[in-house]
Each structure stands twice: as C-alpha cells, then as structure tokens.
Amino acid sequence: MTGNSGVRREQSGSAWEEAIGSARAVAAGDRVIVAGMMPDPTDGAVPGEDEPYEQTLSAFRSAIAALEPFGLDGGSVIRTRMYLSHARDVDEVGRAHRELFGAVRPAATMVVVAGFTDSRVLVEVEIEAYRGAAAAPAREPGAAE
To answer: Between helices 52-65 and 90-101, what is the axis angle to 10°?
Structure first.
C-alpha cells in the first residue's frame, strides 16, 4: 500500500494500533480525524470505573491530546461522536461534553452501542478538528474558488 504525501498519520505506539493496523490521528487536507478513544487506563484500571462522566472526560482529554502534534487543541474541534454502552449515561456523558466543548459547539452525535472491547468501559469518543487556511493547499493565481 502506498502512502499519500498529503496525508499525515500520528501513532501513539499503543499495542492496539499495531494489532489492527491503525493510527491515533490522521490529517488530510484541512481536517484531523482522531480515532475512537476510550478512557485512558492507568495501571490496568479504567479511570472512573462505573462513572460515565469521569470516563468521558478521560476519553475526550486523550482525543484532544492526539491533536497536539498537529498544533491543535479542543478549540479546533468541529465534530464529536460519543458511543455509550448504556442509555442511562446520556446526561453524565452530555455534561462532560458540555464542560469541554460548550464554548466550541461542535456538531455532536451520541449513540448507544452493544458494548466495547473492555467491558468496564462505558463510553468511547471520536473527534474531528479543522486546521483552517494554514493547512489548505495553495491555489493557482486566477483559479476559481
């Protein structure tokens, strides 16, 4: 498989990325897409186990950190997706999302799924960010917009 010179891939070095052949984040044109992020486990424990609010904050903080190699932060997020294992957690997940993105107001999707690869996980998130004009390809003089 050949690479696209206009696409940049960042990996975190996680075993999961190697096992399934994926990247943590991919920049293509003016967008940066961050792969699904679960709460960041420390010492094998899921942070905020049985606490959807804490898990959501942890997962989104990891996703926002994946934007840093591209010079971006949470203010550049234009789309979020939240996958929940229980509908009962909608309010707590929404509260965490509002805390992090209330001023940014990205397009957001929240869905309930059957479960995750780690049964202790209550939420997984994805984000998409906009890099702006700095990432846009230069236009030829006189080219139509």
So the answer is: 40
144 neighbors 87 (Cβ within 8 angstroms)? no
- Indicate yes or no: pTM above 0.70: yes
Confirm whether 140 is domain-assigned: no
**What range does the domain containing 98 cover?**
20-132
Alpha carbons 114 and 107: distance in angstroms, whole number: 23
- Looking at per-residue pLDDT, the higher value among 41 and 127 belongs to 127
In the chain, the number of structural domains is 1
* Cβ-proximal residues to 127 (8 Å cutoff; 6+ apart), any chain: 33, 34, 60, 63, 64, 67, 77, 79, 80, 81, 106
What is the β-pairing status of strands 25-28 and 107-112? unpaired
The CATH code of the domain that includes 45 is 3.30.1330.40
Residue among 85, 80, 120, 112 at smallest CA distance from 96: 80
Query: Sign of the CA dihedral 70, 75, 81, 83?
Result: positive
